[in-house]
């Protein structure tokens, strides 16, 4: 299964913040939307980084309450690991495992953001795929005799 198909099913909406948004505001956005990460997007639409719950917790451990006054631009992870709509679920899961990330922005070849998938999205798709394969095998065995 391709990641593009997952985006067709779940939609391509991505919650984003601006580089100047403060961490307190980002935390509220994460809680409000019940998500684990937001992309940091420049005014021209360029994705410049990602801020996850993990980034906030790590900053809090080192900087305490002052962390809430930091901006997304100061806190974000700048190295983005991305997928394309043509990437397979297995490729996405492998990338997440290898790079220890839980969210992948999905970019078209021209670099345009078309969505974001989480590890939960990919695991759910992989389970559905495995269940479908099992049902096909059961049907084959039942009708082959």
Secondary structure topology:
Layout: H1 3-10, E1 16-17, H2 23-33, E2 37-41, E3 47-52, H3 53-63, H4 72-75, H5 89-99, E4 103-107, E5 113-118, H6 119-144
Parallel strand pairs: 1-2
Antiparallel strand pairs: 2-3, 4-5
Describe this structure in words.
By secondary structure, the protein is an alpha+beta fold. It has one domain (3-144): CBS-domain, CATH 3.10.580. Helices cover 49% and strands 17% of the residues. It has six helices and five strands. It has a three-stranded mixed sheet. The protein has a two-stranded antiparallel ribbon with strand order 4-5. Helix 5 (89-99) packs across helix 6. The longest helix has 26 residues, at 119-144. It is elongated and about 70 Å long. The mean pLDDT is 93.
Keywords, please?
two-stranded antiparallel ribbon; 6 helices; alpha+beta; 145 residues; 49% helix; elongated; single chain; CBS-domain
SS-based class? alpha+beta
Q: What is the strand arrangement across the widest sheet?
A: 1-2-3
Tally of DSSP β-strands: 5
Give the % helix. 40-55%
Low confidence ranges: none
Structural domains: how many: 1
Order of helices and strands: HEHEEHHHEEH
For the largest beta-sheet, the strand count, sense and barrel status come to: 3 strands, mixed
State Rg: 18 Å
- The first-to-last residue Cα distance is 30 Å
**What is the CATH topology descriptor?**
CBS-domain
Q: Give the second-level CATH assignment, the architecture.
A: Roll
The number of helical elements comes to: 6
CATH homologous superfamily title:
CBS-domain
Strand content: 15-25%
Instruction: Assign an overall shape.
Output: elongated
């Amino acid at each position: 299964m391709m990641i593009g198909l997952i985006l067709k099913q779940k939609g391509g909406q991505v919650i984003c913040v601006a580089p100047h948004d403060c961490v307190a505001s980002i935390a509220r956005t994460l809680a409000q939307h019940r998500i684990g990460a937001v992309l940091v997007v420049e005014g021209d639409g360029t994705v410049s980084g990602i801020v996850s719950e993990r980034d906030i917790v790590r900053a809090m451990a080192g900087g305490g309450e002052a962390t809430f006054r930091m901006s997304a631009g100061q806190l974000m992870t700048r190295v983005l690991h991305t997928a394309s709509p043509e990437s397979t679920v297995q490729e996405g899961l492998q990338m997440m495992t290898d790079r220890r990330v839980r969210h992948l922005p999905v970019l078209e070849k021209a670099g345009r953001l078309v969505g974001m998938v989480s590890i939960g999205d990919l695991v759910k798709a992989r389970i559905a795929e495995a269940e479908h394969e099992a049902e096909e095998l059961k049907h084959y065995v039942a009708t082959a005799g």
